[in-house]
Every structure is written in structure tokens, then in C-alpha cells.
Amino acid sequence: MTRFRCAVHIVPRRGILDPQGKAVSDALHSLGFADVSDVRVGRYVVVDTTADSEEAARATVKAMCEKLLANPVTEDYDIASVERA
Fold first, then answer.
1. DSSP secondary-structure letter at 45?
2. Which residues, including other chains, have CB under 8 Å from residue 60's CB and lie 6 or more apart?
3. What confidence tens digit (pLDDT) does each residue in 59-82 have?
4. Segments in the chain forming alpha helices (H)
């Protein structure tokens, strides 16, 4: 078994109200960043796990996201990286 460090980004789905994202977007506009069209505020989760391969680690983290880490109704997730730890 090999140890892997997996990084996951979780954000509200498009079309779902994101009050934090709206507040950040409005603040950026007030600071002169007029080119910002949308901001989504989410979470960055790092999971250390053991698995036989990178593919197995990715599958395990995907299952974690679908069962606990991300709400499948309101959030999208992206497994940003899976690296040997």
C-alpha cells in the first residue's frame, strides 16, 4: 500500500445561490476589478489515504466526495491532484 495525498475543490453549483461568492464579487468590483464576472466560494479539502495505486486512491476519494465531502444536490467537486505522499 502506498500513501497518497489527494486535493479536492468543492464549490456551489452554478445556479445555486452563493452569498459568499456574491459578497466577494461585489467587494472586488468596489476595489476596481470590473472584469470579474463571477466568484464561487467553496472549500479545499486535502485527504491523506493509502491505496494500491493512484487510480485506486482517486476512486476512493471520489466515493468520499459522493458520500460525505460534497453535497450532490448543491455542490460540484473536482479532484485536483492525487500524489504520492
1. E
2. 49, 51
3. 999 999 999 999 999 999 999 999
4. 19-30, 54-64
Residues recorded for the chain = 85
pTM of the model: 0.87
Helix (H) or strand (E) holding 76: strand 75-84
Give the integer Cα–Cα distance in Å for 85 and 4: 5
Quick check: 48 and 1 in contact, CB under 8 A? no
Q: What residues have CB less than 8 Å from 28, skipping those under 6 apart? A: 36, 39
- Long-range contacts formed by 36-41: CB under 8 A, 24+ apart: 40/11, 40/12, 41/11, 41/12
